[in-house]
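Hey team,

Filing this mostly as a record. A colleague (T.K.) asked me to run one chain through the structure pipeline before their review meeting, and I want the input and output archived in the tracker in case anyone asks later how it was produced. No errors, nothing strange. Just documentation.

Input sequence:
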Amino acid sequence: MRLQDLKIFLHVAEIGNLHRSAEALGLTQSALSKTLGRLEREVGMQLFERTPRGVTATEAGQTLVHHARKVLLAVNDLEEELGEQRVARSGTVRLGSLPYLLPSLLSPLLAGFFSSRPLATFSIETHLSAYLVALLQTGQVDLALAAVPHTLPADLEYLPLGVLTMQIVARAGHPRLRTFNSMADLGHERWAMPSASLYLRQWLEERFTSVGLPPPRLAVESSASPVAFAELLRCSDLLGIMPLRILQQPAGQDLVALSGDGMSWHHELGVFWRKGGYLSPICRDFRDAVVQWCEQNGI
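Output structure:
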């Protein structure tokens, strides 16, 4: 039996009039009669009896009404459930991320995520944490992978991903490398550093203030990732900041971590979203996948 035939049959059974049913369904009465005739041939019994007021279902018709309703409800439930699964496996995730996390976390995570959700698409913005938070608050991204600020904005929520270790670095051949034993020894050095509005810059300046030093002497500042300064640091006597793991990768070649007290510190990273904002099923699934991946692999 055709599902459309069952829908037409139920409509006639409920209205009880062939002419009015044909008008409501947008069919000619001839087309309606053909549909009902096809059903009666399949059932092998008469489904309607004519009455002065229209038509009424026979005993066989009442049986078909009972089962047709269950069949159409089951089909409707099936379509809704498959629709939800289809939405969960497709759609776009607008993601903001620290540049450092793109090769170390997002690339391997996405490779696995696409295996179960091949229809998903991603739009990824890479910036430092303060700008990522701003993008999230203005609704330009759905999720942000960023450092947790000292004071969490009231309109955001997050789940922790782990700790990122940041390190003051210099080139391996720096002429004063052996004299860098404490923060006080860095007071006269020049720096390649993040812009003043960014969390990393604020944290570095707090380190200087805590030991009674004036702010670091600026040579270059940028809103780009600190990793973008790697080549500059390799080719000059400037100091900079890097994620500790970068020093173990090709990007950190010929750079060394300064080992004095206070020259490294830890930042908690999190996956952020807007409090009370709508997150599509694919965004929720990806958020949970990020947390699970970090629990199993670290940052």
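Quick notes for T.K.: The chain has nine helices and eleven strands. The longest strand covers residues 156-171.
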